[in-house]
Design brief:
517 residues; alpha/beta; seven-stranded mixed beta sheet; five-stranded parallel beta sheet; 14 helices; 35% helix; binds 2-aminohexanedioic acid
Length: 517
């Protein structure tokens, strides 16, 4: 079977083809045993049906886990440099199809084409990074304390990795997790976000074309209750890696606790840009605009708070509000557009809810504030989930809009008097993903670099823009101590085995037969 079955369907404007996308299980494309599908529509244009996807259930999930479990021995014993060859090939395929995949991703998820191309590029980068690790994957060799004894540590895979991935980076995050899992020798079952299943299906198509052995990578689409929860319960799944909200992450954590299932969580953020009085204000405004409104603010790393020194506060607020009002909102495949829609009606409602909360709390709305619902020369907004880029000024650090993750095009500007105050405000939230400082003073830069308790920190750049070869993740309620990407990303999907080889031919007792000096 292929990934897609097409069938004619009647629509208001005549006959159209509906594409039905399959699950990918044991190297083949398959329907769910539920015989049910769900629809995926373009968030910029609800008339545009991307396709229907399998509404899978527990038995589909278990079948995929069985396939991954069966494939594990063969994959585990495939030398890592050979595993890497598949990843190089997958990276090449993604590179070849970058524009095609990105176009579909903009249709499916809404962010502008330049950004979906960046998303695919992150997957390509990760494919090559992980493939390179296939020839490194360093352990340690160390001297033993005893003569004629050899000591070393090696990574070993865990088994079947269960991945639960979000809609905001529909291919990059599945790639971060998936390639790290594969290169370390695990097999994979992935449940993509129901708002963006196509992106993961396109990733699976690249894997199939690359000739990845059957069952090594499996995709099961469907809901959290029907597919996600059975994944957490299945004893053959050795490790779960999840990116999504802190509330769902907590539930996953509790579900994994009784069986000590290994778990990596990457959750919410409330990231801050801090602007000092000596900063290049125009550069800081550029950064704030990109940090707050890139991906319509739907990044874990979005700059949803901005703390500005009182000496440059008025100038900064005026410039940021002016620039935010000028952003062109519309369909992401139109090259003139700066910002796309929210991904869903639910996200749009959350944004509207927080705009109201901000106004009720007494923050000053200086740009945006409304959902876009009319037909204009730019786009027929009534067909999607659009919201104006929104800037609140005079926000107090304890207001809800400065404390809670909104995940939309809303940012909260606060006035501060010093670096120390900015750092205290910056660290005053429950999350700890990303932070940034605009300054020309090297002493201030190093102080903030030391004192911001976040997993990512930038100087003279916004809170977004992480590259794949460094660890990605956050402190406090953002994560559970793990990181993805970089070499650190291998830790989630492997365990250390320390190995001692005694070639003395006699019993040597560590700590006891070691001569005292
Ligand atoms: C996310 O929002 O979950 O640094 C990932 C960035 C991107 C990745 C964001 N490279 O913003």
């Amino acid at each position: 079977m292929s990934a897609i079955a097409t069938k004619p369907s009647k629509t208001a404007d005549g006959l159209r083809e509906t594409r039905e996308y399959m699950n990918f299980v044991d190297g083949d494309w398959a329907r769910s045993s539920s015989k049910q599908t769900f629809e995926n529509r373009n968030p910029a244009d609800n008339d545009d049906l991307i396709g229907t996807f399998q509404e899978s259930n527990e038995s589909d999930l278990n079948a995929a886990v069985d396939a991954a479990h069966k494939a594990y021995e063969g994959w585990r014993l495939t030398p890592a440099p050979r595993r890497a060859e598949y990843l190089y090939r997958i990276g090449d395929i993604l590179k070849r199809d970058k524009d095609k995949i990105a176009r579909e991703m903009t249709r499916e998820m809404g962010k502008v084409f330049a950004e979906t191309k960046g998303d695919v590029q992150e997957a390509i980068d990760m494919a090559f990074l992980a493939a390179g690790e296939g020839r490194r994957m360093y352990g340690q060799t160390t001297p033993s304390e005893l003569q004629n004894k050899f000591a070393m540590s090696v990574r070993m895979p865990l088994g079947v990795a269960g991945l639960i991935t979000p809609w905001n980076f529909p291919i990059a995050i599945p790639a971060w997790k998936g390639f790290a899992a594969l290169i370390t020798g695990n097999t994979v079952v992935i449940k993509p976000a129901s708002l963006t299943p196509l992106s993961v299906i396109m990733l699976a198509e690249a894997m199939e074309e690359a000739g990845l052995p059957k069952g090594v990578f499996n995709v099961v689409t469907g809901g959290g209750k029907e597919v996600g929860e059975p994944m957490l319960k299945n004893p053959k799944v050795a490790v779960i890696s999840f990116t999504g909200s802190t509330n769902v992450g907590r539930e996953i954590s509790m579900a994994c606790a009784p069986t000590f299932k290994h778990l990596h969580l990457e959750m919410g953020g409330k990231n801050i840009i801090m602007v000092m009085d000596d900063a290049d204000v125009d550069l800081a405004v550029d950064g704030a605009l990109w940090g707050a409104f890139g991906t319509s603010g739907q990044r874990c790393t979005a700059a949803s708070r901005i703390a500005v020194h009182s000496k440059v506060y008025d100038a900064f607020v005026e410039k940021l509000a002016g620039r935010a009002k000028k952003l062109r909102v519309g369909y992401g495949l139109d090259p003139k557009i700066d910002m796309g829609p929210n991904v869903s009606e639910g996200q749009l409602k959350t944004v509207q809810k927080y705009v109201k909360i901000g106004q009720d709390e007494g923050a000053k709305l200086v740009a945006g504030g409304k959902a876009l619902t009319e037909k204009t020369g730019t786009w027929d907004y009534s067909k999607g989930f659009f919201h104006e880029p929104t800037v609140f000024a005079d926000v107090k650090p304890d207001m809800r809009i400065a404390q809670e993750e909104i995940f939309g095009p809303v940012t909260a500007v606060m006035k501060i008097e010093s670096l120390e105050e900015a750092i205290a405000v910056g660290n005053s939230v429950r999350y700890g993903l990303s932070s940034s400082l605009y300054t020309r003073d090297v002493n201030k830069a190093f102080t903030a670099m030391r004192d911001m308790y976040t997993g990512l920190f930038y100087v003279n750049a916004p809170t977004i823009g992480a590259e794949v070869h460094l660890p990605f993740g956050g402190t406090k309620d953002t994560g559970n101590g793990h990181r993805e990407a970089g070499v650190a990303g291998l830790d989630v999907f492997s365990e250390w085995k320390s190995i001692y080889i005694d070639y003395s031919g006699s019993l040597q007792r560590a700590q006891i037969d070691t001569e005292e000096i």
